[in-house]
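== Fold encoding ==
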Amino acid sequence: MSTAHDGHRHIVSISGGKDSTALAIYLRDKLAKVEYVFSDTDKELPETYEYLDKLEAYLGQRIERLRSEHGFDHWLKIYGGYLPSARMRWCTKVLKIRPFEQHIGDDPVKMYIGIRADENRGGYRPTKPNIIPVYPFIEAGYGLDDIHRILDESGIGFPNYYSWRSRSGCTFCFYQQRQEWVGLKENHPKAFEEAKRYEKIDPDTGTRYTWSERESLEELERPERIAEIKAKAELSRNINRIESKKLLNILGQDDDEFVEPCSFCHF
């Protein structure tokens, strides 16, 4: 796959997750010239940065770290204190997509995205006509087993956070399941406390500004509630060990309604 003279910049956007990492490895020797970028919200897990450093060493090339001119706290004020949610994903827009699109400017770009052939979800939809999304794993028919093989053969393996979390994203990503919030509290208590401080309840209206509509982190961290969440997750794991080997299922679903995550953050 030679791309030296097609007039496009070739960019792999890395999320810090398994699929985009496998894609970077897969394309390393297939593209004549490639750029690797990571949109950094400054609210990432330490394990994500460690994984990026590991990948950077393997690729032998720098991963460009992109950042918004203003951080999360600034944008939270702009959006009236409304925490990002599945219905209002402003965090992806201003902290991930906008820095990326500013980085490439008006240059013609082919953006390589690690969505697999065995996934049923849409990809990143560019707001600029000069960006062409490319899905090599879909074109090659690669599924989860192929991702495992690429990561194993490279020696990169999976991010360490997969021991308690199912996907990449900010420390307070609202897509986390309840057992993953428990995992954040146990593995990164300071990050959990920061996430908790963002939650507010309006004393006049009773309006809740929480990461989960039905439960605040203060409610979730009660010992009896944590025990309940862990018991339910263990039951789900036992069932899913029989039914499926998919990582998302192994971690177990709780009573949250599952919503497909942002393709720019989680792949």
In short: The longest strand covers residues 9-13. Residues 178-251 form one domain.
